[in-house]
Model the fold of this input.
Amino acid sequence: MFDAKQIRKHALECLRLQSDCMQLSRVADSRNLQSHFADMARFWGGLAISGPASNAKPNLFKAKTQTP
Done:
């Protein structure tokens, strides 16, 4: 079981990572990197909301694949 302090710490760390990814998406040179960092920002934002006990699995982050 997580206490309130651990939950807040988890949320703040996820929000910090979300902010970093958002900033990287704005300065990335390629559209692929911009898209990747925007996706990662959404992932970290979702994890901040779901909490540390969410048992996050890779399917929370669905990488975009390009089809020719």
Notes: The helical segments are 4-27, 31-50. The chain has two helices and no strands.
